[in-house]
Amino acid sequence: MLGRDLVAVLSARHQGRVTAATRAEVDLTDPAAVRAAVAGHRIVVNAAAWTDVDGAERQEAAATAVNGTGVANLAAACAEAGARLLHVSTDYVFAGDAESPYPEDAPTAPVNAYGRSKLAGELAVTRLLPRTGYLVRTAWLYGAHGSNFVTTMLRLAGVRPHLDVVNDQLGQPTWSYALAERLADLGAAAERGTAPAGVYHGTASGHTTWYDLAREVFARTGLDPERIRPTGSDRFPRPARRPGYSVLGHAGWSRAGLVPMVHWRVMLADALRPDGTLTSARRSAAPGHATGDRIGSGTR
């Protein structure tokens, strides 16, 4: 999802040669393969990760091999090659029990295996690339490519008369294309020497619940938002505990001479514009005749 958008953004901006490596081409757990892939590049963006949150709970060692050890391999290769690394991380490094947005320097305290594996990657970047490592935490990503909450809502709109969506989790829905643009901005600022290394929060401004996000998606695509019904997270028992509060602060962007990303409603409206790729998910979006679905957390 993010990788494809990033290639599109960089290619459109003509920001030098862009190498897009698939998982089959570069195995992050293979140090030699990673070194060979990084050689000759000035900036590396890591959009690869083990993202199966529940799967990580069952296979923490395997998740950490990718999200922790693999990132350490990448950071070491960047240090050897003299390349800057922009590493995409997650709100899951936090406990999710705050009452105000997490600043970039807030103490980390992941509550599940996925969060612990991603924190291991963050620590590796900080240790190995103290001056050229950039951590960009994001959350509630949606986009045209891959499975995500927004496209799932539009798909289910065609087969379910009602959707029950949780209303007790707070976060910042973020369009992957907008995040790709921000990563390109950050990389350019890093090249100019105006963006110091460290942590940045790559999420939309404002915050909402999954329930209100679903209603907004329906309203902006000509569907009836009253088909969305609120429910609680306790209706969705999952192997991995989810943070209840995933709202991140954005003060760090001023260090790079950049303003925070736009409000999530503005971002969603842009993503769902009539000529946008996300609207293709509306195929057969008329109410169906099956029983209602209950929808929990979105895909990161």
Secondary structure layout plus pairing:
Layout: H1 2-13, H2 31-38, E1 43-46, H3 53-58, H4 60-81, E2 84-90, H5 113-128, E3 133-138, E4 141-142, H6 149-156, E5 163-166, E6 170-171, E7 174-175, H7 176-192, E8 198-201, E9 208-209, H8 210-220, E10 228-231, E11 245-246, H9 264-271, E12 293-295
Helix pairs in contact: 1-7, 2-4, 4-5, 6-8
CATH fold descriptor: Rossmann fold
- Give the number of DSSP strands: 12
Unreliable stretches, pLDDT < 50, 5 or more residues?
Answer: 281-300
**CATH architecture classification:** 3-Layer(aba) Sandwich
Order of H and E elements:
HHEHHEHEEHEEEHEEHEEHE
CATH homologous superfamily title: NAD(P)-binding Rossmann-like Domain
Largest sheet: 4 strands, parallel
Give the radius of gyration: 19 Å
How many domains comprise the coordinates? Answer: 1
Biggest β-sheet: strands ordered side by side in the sheet: 1-2-3-8
Helix content: 25-40%
| Distance between the first and last residues' Cα | 10 Å
The fraction of residues in strands falls at 5-15%
